[in-house]
Specification:
With about 1100 residues, the chain is an alpha+beta fold. About 40% of the residues lie in helices and about 10% in strands. It has a seven-stranded mixed beta sheet with strand order 12-13-15-14-16-18-17. The chain has a six-stranded mixed beta sheet with strand order 1-3-4-6-10-9, covered by helices on one side. A five-stranded antiparallel beta sheet has the order 2-5-11-7-8. Helix 8 runs parallel beside helix 11 (about 145-160), helix 13 runs antiparallel to helix 14 and helix 36 (about 830-840) packs across helix 43. The structure holds zinc ion. Zinc ion binds next to loops. This is Cytosolic carboxypeptidase 1.
């Protein structure tokens, strides 16, 4: 009713009767305050009440303003265009001279409230000319706190818009704000706080930051910060102190700002003030912001290596002109690839509005429907593929001449056939006779008596003294194998096995004391498929680029999974911060820094360090080792540099190294300073792995999760743009961990994950032969030879036919194929452990295993990248390329394992025997649990905006069955983490190519966590080899259930059936993948580790990791994805 009256008044243009309007408005206001219901009515979106008020506002602004200032429904006000009207009033009122102070006060108070609710506020203000009104008001009322406060509040909102910030800066507002905030005074702190906020926002503009530097405001800000730090004894003005730091933080986003900060002794000032704040927990925001600024300003160091190119070079048979290797070696000599000339990307400021930031789009989803429809490509002509027939003898074997009861004879008789007549293929990349001989000798291990094995002289040319010695001692009585370290034979405890004589028995006898003679742990008893002697034999046939001649103890002794639980490490409060402070101290107290190089692959006589007893000794010159350099930074702290993948200048994450010469009970800190991934599970409970030789010889040969104070953060070592995909100003990341050693004179090993070398695989495969029963059909072929001259094994496992009757032979030949592969990425050793579980299950005696063998023919390439594994690479092969990006067009010379594996699949497609399931095992560094990636047109379309017809979307849900079963039976497996989206960046991976070109609907990547599980039976625990092997076995069980679910005869029928079982409504939306590196989606749970965050609320440390999001850091990852 009152509204009606007001409306009428407006309508009748009774402008003169201001007093009446005022009365009515007051009544409405009163009514709203006293009767909630009518209040809601007036303000609700549906009612016209707000329009009425707005209209009245235009007519008699002052009274209505009073009303609105008390209102709560700002959102409605904004949506009805209220902001624009306010600005109109403001600009027109400003033309009156002098403007009404009361009106200006009200208008600004109201704008200050409206501002944060209106995303277009900044643009509207600029377009209406309101910016200047507010600025001149501020200038004229510097002493008038009552009016100044709302004006500054509005200015604070204006400044959030980047275009406004630039324009305000041009009009002297930055200088104006500096006038308001200084000198130190506690007089009007609320005003000061708002002025600092506005200034902080203005300084986000690089032009303004430059202005602040030019005006010498950096030392002024620091001095002011010190004043507040000293005078705010009760910490009542933390927000002002924080405001000052935010200004500094934004200024130091530019290079000039960082320079000014360093010159003004900013590092020391912030370091000292932060240290003083440390005991007061409520001051954490100050410490965190200070540490952020210090990290940013910390002068970028060069990585302490002569070049970032791998310390080893491997001459490729030919180099593709556009490939990464050509790029790598095309730089003129003398170019320093470790650092860039400039360390900064100070791009010119974009004059665009930031009010309405577009939501980030995932542009990696495949949107080309033609590419989404699996179209079996003809691939290569069948004539070329025919040679691969020899790898599928089971599809033609008739078993007529052999007695089925004697499997060993059958196995033997097949041997001449298995050896592929390599010449028929391409002699260059198929197994050479030499390697074939090695392979045969490996296989000979289990069938031939030991005597004949030792009579062999394999790989004599490769074997170094060390290996020979091991070989010889192995031939003696076990008791004499005293090259194993003794507890106090310090000098004899030389790294690995390179000086067994030194560790001779006399040393042990002389010293006597604690446990004189020590024997090799009988791992053969603990580990049925491990044999140290056999391992050494295998190493002799393994060809590494650095020609390693040593054997690491863990691989020699083997690993027995511990029986105790290994829960995720709880993150200690403030750990990252305290580590960063220790790093900053290197700059503040340079005299405390030793900087003593104790290990260096780049010098020929590595390791050269004289043993003064003051330093640890390092080594990693053994299979899968990759330490390049170790520097003693402080007495008990070491910086470690990892070697790049061979023929590459980056990809460091995996590590495997040996340490000796330690003191018992002392805490050592280790920093791996050239990690590349932008985040790591080391921030979420994952520990490193340690193997103690002393523990091993005491009967506990095992890797255990170890390390405290673990964290992973961006460091001050500059990453060359050459290795960062062309981006400048990038840094490396540090993985830091601390540990104490519990045995004197121990030799310990640290690794990223449970090592699994190529020689281990060969030993394991040889041991698998021993599991063969008359009912098992096992064939080991050599698929091809790698670039490095190692053989790539191919296994065929199925059941022998029940008899040689036609029916049984027919059933045998017609079993569907399952194709498995693993370890294309050398750093993902967990994939090998899962594969080990699969292989042992398949060779097992359980009824399940027997049924499985009867149901399928398994084709398995257990290690797609032997060279990478051997040489300690993290991701690539010797060609310096990620082999899992070569599946579209593998080069037979450069990517032989991929080329021939793909050919096997192409051959199968040609003979209409494409596998039922293809799965490539991988490891995932940034997620927990085990999960799968598959390929689905429908789910890809759902994730994108492309329009598709319903026929495009016709797809059965068969691809979901296997992961679904796994989620039911495998405790580590998580369906929620699975994704079935096809990404552009993955179009050359095994999964996508096998799906698209070979036409395998169930084509997967199975990713196993490196860390542990956050669901299921293993929730809260770190993953171990037992769980990984179990996963491999469960994968087999799931395949059996897949078969039972389907009754398996005709593919199409079974797919339909599965759809029924799984249910077509299960629209689980999969997470899409933003991350281009690895085969992994972005990791949302994250700690802000980065020093370059623009997020106002992001502190370098967030202990709970909730309200902080990870910078997607796209470009950072691009470098890993080509
Ligand atoms: Zn991988």
């Amino acid at each position: 009713m009152l509204l009606g009256q007001l409306e009428r008044m407006n309508g009748e243009a009774m402008v003169r009767d201001v007093e009446t309007a005022r009365q009515v408005t007051t009544k409405i206001l009163h009514l709203i305050q006293t009767q909630e219901k009518s209040g809601k009515e007036v303000m609700s979106k549906g009612s016209s009440g707000m329009e009425v008020i707005l209209a009245s506002l235009e007519v008699s602004s002052q009274t209505t303003l009073e009303f609105l200032c008390r209102g709560r429904r700002m959102g409605v006000f904004v949506s009805k265009g209220g902001t624009g009207i306010l600005f109109q009033i403001l600009t027109s009122a400003s033309k009156e001279l002098p403007p009404s102070e009361e009106l200006m006060l009200q208008l600004h108070s109201l704008l200050a409230k409206v501002g944060p609710k209106d995303r277009k506020f900044g643009v509207k203000a600029r377009l209406s000319g309101a910016l200047n009104v507010t600025i001149s008001l501020i200038k004229q009322n510097l002493q008038n706190a009552k009016l100044l406060l709302p004006c500054l509040q509005v200015l604070r909102v204006y400044s959030a818009n980047s275009v406004n910030a630039i324009s305000l800066g041009k009009n002297g507002v930055v200088e104006l704000m500096f006038k308001i905030i200084a000198p130190y005074s506690k007089k009007n702190t609320s005003l000061l706080k708002v002025a600092l906020d506005a200034l902080g926002a203005l300084l986000k503009s690089k032009t303004n930051a430059r202005r602040a530097v030019d005006g010498s405001h950096v030392p002024a800000l620091l001095a002011l910060y010190l004043d507040w730090h000293r005078n705010d004894a009760r910490h009542r003005h933390m927000l002002i102190r924080k405001g000052l730091l935010v200004c500094l933080r934004n200024i130091t986003n530019i290079k000039l700002g960082r320079k000014a900060f360093i010159e003004a002794d900013g590092m020391r000032i912030l370091y000292n003030t932060s240290t003083e704040c440390l005991p007061v927990r409520t001051l954490d925001p100050l410490i965190n912001t200070s540490s952020l600024i210090m990290r940013k300003c910390f002068p970028k160091n060069r990585l302490p290596v002569p070049t970032i190119k791998s310390a080893f070079h491997y001459q490729l048979p030919h180099v593709l002109p556009v490939g990464p290797v050509a790029q790598l070696y095309s730089q003129p000599p003398g170019v320093d690839d470790v650092v860039d000339d400039s360390d900064d990307n100070e791009e010119t400021e974009a004059e665009t509005d930031t009010d309405n930031e577009e939501d980030e789009k995932n542009d990696d989803i495949e949107t080309d429907l033609n590419k989404l429809h699996p179209t079996k490509s003809p691939g290569r002509p069948f004539e070329e593929l025919r040679v691969y027939e020899r790898f599928f003898l089971e599809l033609s074997e008739d078993f007529q001449v052999r007695s089925l009861s004697s499997s060993s004879s059958s196995a033997r008789s097949t041997r001449p056939i298995i050896v592929p007549t390599a010449q028929a293929l391409s002699p260059k990349h198929m197994a050479t006779p030499a390697s074939q001989e090695i392979w045969n000798s490996i296989k000979g291990q289990h069938t031939q008596p030991p005597a004949s094995a030792t009579s062999r002289t394999p790989a004599a040319s490769l074997a170094s003294l060390e290996l020979d010695t091991i070989h010889l001692t192995k031939d003696h009585d076990k008791k004499e194998e005293t090259h194993i370290p003794t507890p106090d034979g310090h000098t004899t405890l030389s790294s690995s096995m390179h000086s067994p004589q030194d560790c001779g028995s006399e040393g042990a006898e002389d010293e006597g004391g604690e446990g004189a003679v020590l024997e090799v742990p009988d791992t053969a008893l603990l580990l049925p498929l491990h044999d140290p002697d056999l391992y050494v034999e295998m190493v002799k046939g393994t060809r590494s680029v650095p020609q390693y001649a040593e054997v690491a103890y863990p691989d020699y002794f083997g690993h027995v999974a511990p029986t105790f639980k290994e829960p995720h490490l709880e993150r200690v409060y403030g750990v990252q911060r305290s580590k960063i402070f220790q790093d900053i101290e290197r700059l503040i107290h340079p005299n405390d820094i030793l900087d003593k190089v104790v290990y260096d692959l780049d010098i020929p006589s590595c390791p050269v360090i004289e043993d003064s007893g003051e330093s640890l000794k390092f080594n990693s010159q053994f299979e899968s080792g990759n330490l390049r350099k170790a520097i003693q930074v402080r007495k008990y702290e070491y910086d470690l540099v990892l070697n790049s993948d061979i023929n590459s200048n980056h990809y460091h994450q995996w590590f495997y190294l040996e340490v000796s010469g330690m003191r018992v009970g002392t805490t050592y800190r280790f920093n791996i300073i050239n990690c590349e991934k932008s985040n790591s599970q080391f921030n979420y409970g994952m520990q490193v792995l340690m193997y103690s030789v002393q523990e091993a010889i005491s009967g506990r040969p095992r890797w255990v999760r170890t390390g405290t104070d673990i964290c992973y953060y961006k460091n001050h070592f500059a990453r060359s743009s050459i290795a960062a995909g062309g981006q400048k100003g990038k840094s490396y990341f540090t993985l830091t961990f601390s540990t104490t050693f519990s045995h004197k004179d121990d030799v310990c090993y640290f690794a990223y994950h449970y090592p699994y070398t190529y020689s281990t695989l060969k030993m394991h495969l040889a041991k698998l032969e021993a599991l063969r029963t008359p009912h098992i059909y096992l064939r080991q072929d050599v698929l091809c030879e790698t670039l490095g001259g190692n053989i790539c094994p191919l296994l065929t496992i199925t059941a022998m036919p029940e008899s040689n009757s036609n029916d049984h032979i027919c059933q045998f030949r017609n079993r569907p194929l399952i194709f498995l592969s693993a370890r294309v990425h050398p750093g993902e050793t967990n994939a090998s452990w899962v594969m080990k579980g699969t292989l042992e299950f398949l060779m097992g005696t359980s009824p399940l295993a027997a049924s499985l063998r009867e149901a399928y023919i398994f084709k398995i390439v257990p290690m797609l990248n032997p060279d990478g594994v051997i040489n300690g690479n993290h991701r690539c092969s010797l060609s310096g390329e990620d082999l899992n990006r070569q599946w579209q067009n593998p080069n037979p010379e450069l990517h032989p394992t991929i080329y021939h594996t793909k050919s096997l699949l192409q051959y199968l497609a040609h003979i209409q025997r494409a596998p039922l399931v293809f799965c490539d095992y991988h490891g995932h560094s940034r997620k927990k649990n085990v999960f799968m990636y598959g390929c689905s047109v429908k789910e890809t379309v759902w994730q994108s905006n492309i329009s598709a017809t319903s026929s495009d979307l016709h797809e059965d849900l068969g691809y979901r069955t296997l992961p679904k079963i796994l989620s039911q039976i495998a405790p580590a497996f998580s369906m929620a983490s699975c994704s079935f989206v096809v990404e552009r960046s993955k179009e050359a991976t095994a999964r996508v190519v096998v799906w698209r070109e070979i036409g395998v609907q169930r084509s997967y990547t199975m990713e196993s966590t490196l860390c542990g599980c956050d669901q299921g039976k293993y929730k809260g625990l770190q993953i171990g080899t037992r769980e990984l092997e179990e996963m491999g076995a469960q994968f087999c069980v799931a395949l059996l259930r897949l078969k039972r679910l389907t009754g398996l005869r005709n593919h199409q029928h079974l797919l339909d059936l599965e759809s029924d079982i799984i249910g077509t409504q299960s629209k689980v939306v999969s997470p899409t993948t933003y991350v281009m590196e690895e085969d992994e989606p972005s990791f949302l749970e994250a700690i802000d580790y980065s020093a370059e965050s623009d997020n106002e609320d992001a502190e370098p440390e967030n202990e709970h990791g909730n309200n902080v999001h990870e910078n997607p850091d796209h470009l950072d990852q691009l470098s890993d994805s080509y």
